[in-house]
Design brief:
This is Gustatory receptor. It is built from twelve helices and two strands, in the order H-H-H-H-H-H-H-H-H-H-E-E-H-H. It is mainly alpha-helical. Helix 7 runs parallel beside helix 11.
């Protein structure tokens, strides 16, 4: 019995898979090292906490993205199996969206390279020396390329991927009645089987993608925290920017992340609405055929009562109010936390000032006491007491 020899194509796929795993592991290890090194240099301020939150989110997103990459490819293959009539305009909008998000990250990379090549954190992280200019520029480019392209860009790309998948699935649900409920006869078994397949598809999508929705929600919370920090401490925020171009790119980053998250939430919420409309259409189609439901029809309607919702890590269903819940909660707690930090700083300053006032008062009291004692020496009784003491 001869042994099975793997083909060259299969061997190349295995090598490519494990090479990607090793590369992703190296990226995550460097990101963890950078975050740990940066943690010691950040004070307990709102901006520092939001920055560490962003680093943690990008790390976890990249980790799960590497683990579930082939699951995402399988989802793309499942979506391609659904035959729908797509609009070329939608494809053009998605393409422009991808180009703009990528271009924005490339511009951020260029701005960081031009204005931040003397970043003290990068120099301290790698132990750079001033005389090695070419080596310094190469390492600084690698550092900013890591953050902009390898860590932040995948979040934007996945948000677009999630929105496209939801849009595609909504189109399938919208076109379901025209494909299965036309004519005077309804094949209940076939329609019920198709509905169950759609429902199972939504559930499988939610099982694979709900964890990423949690990370994107946390990233959107980070963006909202940046906006709140800018409103409350705009002077500190502007001093952390290198130039007007850097400020503009940061505002574009906030706008890009906000639009991506809003589009993702709206696209996910439309899945539940489209499935609800589909159930109502099925009911109307059955009611138009016969006024009295048969046992078979009633059983069919009972089976179609299930809802199809996408969730955030199986914790909260994504509906239109989800966006307002996230926005309101983050703004409220961010303002509360910033006020707590400001109160803490106020009491520290008050404690330091009170200590200095007490010390100053004691010094002045000693001077006054010595001055009074010198004046009392002219009185005979005090002069005699001083002689006895000596």
């Amino acid at each position: 019995m001869s042994a099975v020899v793997p083909t060259a194509g299969k061997t190349n796929n295995i090598l490519l898979k494990y090479s990607a795993i090793l590369l992703n592991t190296a990226i995550l290890v460097f990101h963890a090292y950078d975050s740990a090194y940066l943690l010691y240099g950040i004070k307990l301020k709102s901006f520092g906490i939001t920055f560490m939150l962003a680093n943690s989110i990008t790390f976890m997103h990249r980790y799960f993205l590497g683990r579930r990459f082939y699951s995402l490819k399988r989802i793309a293959n499942i979506m391609s199996n659904f035959d729908i009539q797509e609009n070329n305009r939608s494809k053009l909008v998605i393409l422009i969206w991808i180009v703009l998000s990528t271009l924005h990250q490339v511009l951020m990379l260029g701005s960081n390279m031009y204005y931040g090549r003397n970043n003290p954190h990068v120099r301290s992280l790698f132990g750079l020396k001033p005389e090695d200019s070419l080596l310094n520029d190469s390492i600084v480019f690698f550092y900013y390329f890591h953050h902009a392209i390898l860590m932040t860009l995948p979040i934007s790309v996945f948000a677009i991927f999630y929105t496209v998948v939801c849009h595609h699935l909504r189109s399938v649900l919208k076109q379901f009645p025209s494909r299965n409920l036309t004519g005077g006869f309804i094949d209940y078994k076939k329609v019920l089987q198709s509905l169950n397949e759609l429902h199972m598809t939504v559930e499988s999508l939610d099982d694979e993608l709900s964890i990423f929705v949690l990370f994107l929600t946390m990233h959107a919370s980070y963006v909202v925290m940046l906006v709140v920090y800018f409103v409350l401490n705009h002077n500190d925020y502007f001093t952390s920017c290198w130039s007007c171009i850097d400020r503009l790119l940061r505002f574009l980053q906030i706008a890009d992340s906000s639009v991506l998250f809003a589009a993702m939430v709206v696209a996910a919420s439309l899945i539940a609405e489209a499935y609800k409309e589909l159930r109502a259409t099925v009911r109307r189609s059955i009611a138009s055929l016969d006024m009295e439901f048969s046992l078979k029809q009633q059983k069919f309607l009972m089976c179609t009562e299930k809802e199809a919702n996408l969730t955030m890590y199986k914790v909260m269903e994504i509906k239109r109010g989800f966006l307002l819940v996230v926005l309101g909660g983050v703004v409220t707690y961010m303002i509360l936390f910033d006020n707590i930090l400001n109160i803490n700083d106020f009491f520290k300053r008050l404690h330091r000032s009170s200590r200095s006032v007490v010390v100053k008062t004691l010094v002045e009291f000693e001077d006054v006491k010595d001055y009074i004692w010198k004046d009392l020496q002219v009185i005979p009784i005090f002069k005699m007491q001083n002689t006895v003491d000596s």
